[in-house]
Specification:
There is one protein chain. By secondary structure, this protein is mainly beta. It has one helix and nine strands. The strands form two sheets. Strands 5-6-7-8-9 form a five-stranded mixed sheet, with no helix packed on it. Strands 1-2-3-4 form a four-stranded antiparallel sheet. The longest helix is centred in the middle third of the chain and has 4 residues. Zinc ion (ZN) binds next to loops.
């Protein structure tokens, strides 16, 4: 139930009197509702879980995301970044999530990591590319 937390949705804000970006701030299990916090006025809005699921849910950087979500623990893979063993990654092109199992020294401008993905298995990726 908490997979949407910290994500962004566009929703009507009664304080701003218009559509605003709202952060999904908390979930109430008992009532199955989410509380949204307006990014503009920080006012709280309540939304039912089933209604939230119909909205396009975005990361803070506005990219649409799908079921394999980027969270505080799961970082979206970018070749320019560097990763450590044990880091959880989401790879947008593979649409799969995995864990860094091994660091390998590369040649020249970048190093390599071995990532064990949930669905597609192990892949070698570059990281720290300049
Ligand atoms: Zn507002």
């Amino acid at each position: 139930m908490s997979k949407y937390l910290k994500k962004i949705v566009e929703h009507y804000c009664s304080i701003c009197n218009g559509m605003t970006d709202m952060e999904i701030a908390s979930h109430n299990d008992e009532l199955d509702i989410y509380w949204l916090r307006c990014k503009v006025c920080h006012g709280a809005t309540m939304i039912k879980n089933k209604n939230l699921e119909k909205l396009a849910i975005r990361k803070a950087n506005n990219a649409l995301i799908n079921d394999h979500q980027v969270t505080d623990q799961v970082k979206e893979y970018e070749p320019a970044k560097t990763y450590e063993a044990g880091q959880l990654l989401y790879h947008p092109a593979f649409d799969d999530k995995g864990v860094v199992t091994e660091l390998k020294p590369g040649s020249g401008d970048f190093d390599k990591i071995i990532v064990k993905f949930d669905h597609i298995g192990e892949k070698m990726l570059i990281h720290g590319a300049s």
